[in-house]
């Protein structure tokens, strides 16, 4: 099992390292930016500005999560699509379903590792400066972003695996449209009118994850049928 994980990790490790370092940098940037602002205005003054003027920003961390969900999905499936290597999974001692699950979940687990780090680190940062209510209000944007990123990861993988070029282009167009809708539903804190622009937006994003997973399963089924020659 560990050899399989290492083999899969080798395909996207550069992208993962860049993502992890970038995420750490963004979290540190947010921390020092908050510290500097609070030193200038005092905690009470800055908290009031945060509540009424939305002076906080994730400094592109949300966009970074979306970008690397796509990058790691593409890297994890690029050689499978290019060389039709998923067919070799049919001859492995493990079941085809288990091999495919590992092929999909190994990159996702590495992504989730960074996402969980972001949530925990920023929770500690926010609770250091603000009451728990404000901390939760700030975090909800990031959590929604991560839910959507997981669905985007599945959609990007399905686009890479789908053997029919017309269907692959269709998946790409759906992905682009849904990313545009995402920024309308869950903009950065400083770009929205309310902390909770839509209190049940996570439900929409959860459905997006289900759609992405089903699309990936359908594309893998097509792949197994041997559409790629």
Question: What features would you describe in this structure?
Answer:
It is built from seven helices and no strands. The chain has 229 residues and is an all-alpha fold. It starts with a helix and ends in a 5-residue tail after the last helix.
How would you describe this structure in keywords?
229 residues; mainly alpha; 80% helix
Briefly characterize the structure.
With 229 residues, the chain is mainly α. It is built from seven helices and no strands.
SSE diagram, text form:
Elements: H1 2-41, H2 43-53, H3 61-83, H4 96-129, H5 132-161, H6 165-185, H7 201-224
Helix pairs in contact: 1-2, 1-3, 1-4, 3-4, 3-5, 4-5, 5-6, 5-7
Structural class: mainly alpha
Mean pLDDT: 85
Count of helical stretches: 7
Strand content: under 5%
Low-confidence stretches: none
Question: What is the CA-CA span between the terminal residues?
Answer: 29 Å
Question: Would you report the number of β strands?
Answer: 0
Write the element-wise H/E pattern from the N-terminal end onward.
HHHHHHH
Shape: elongated
The amount of helix comes to: over 70%
Radius of gyration: 20 Å
| Largest sheet report | none
């Amino acid at each position: 099992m560990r050899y399989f994980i290492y083999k899969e990790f080798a395909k996207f490790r550069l992208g993962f390292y860049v993502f992890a370092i970038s995420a750490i940098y963004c979290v540190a940037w947010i921390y020092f930016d908050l510290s500097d602002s609070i030193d200038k205005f005092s905690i009470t003054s800055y908290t009031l500005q945060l509540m009424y003027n939305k002076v906080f920003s994730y400094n592109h961390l949300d966009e970074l999560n979306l970008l690397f969900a796509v990058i790691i999905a593409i890297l994890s499936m690029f050689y499978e699509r290019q060389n039709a290597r998923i067919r070799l999974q049919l001859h492995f001692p493990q079941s085809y379903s288990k091999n495919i699950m590992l092929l999909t979940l190994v990159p996702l687990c590495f992504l989730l590792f960074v996402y969980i780090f972001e949530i925990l680190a920023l929770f500690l940062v926010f609770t250091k400066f603000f009451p728990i209510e404000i901390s939760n209000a700030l975090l909800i944007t990031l959590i929604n972003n991560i839910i959507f990123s997981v669905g985007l990861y599945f959609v990007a993988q399905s686009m890479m695996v789908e053997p029919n070029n017309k269907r692959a282009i269709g998946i790409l167009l759906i992905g682009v449209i849904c990313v545009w809708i995402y920024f309308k539903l869950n903009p950065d804190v400083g770009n929205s009118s309310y902390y909770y622009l839509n209190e049940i937006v996570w439900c929409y994003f959860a459905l997006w994850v289900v759609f992405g997973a089903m699309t990936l399963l359908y594309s893998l089924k097509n792949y197994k049928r041997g559409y790629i020659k």
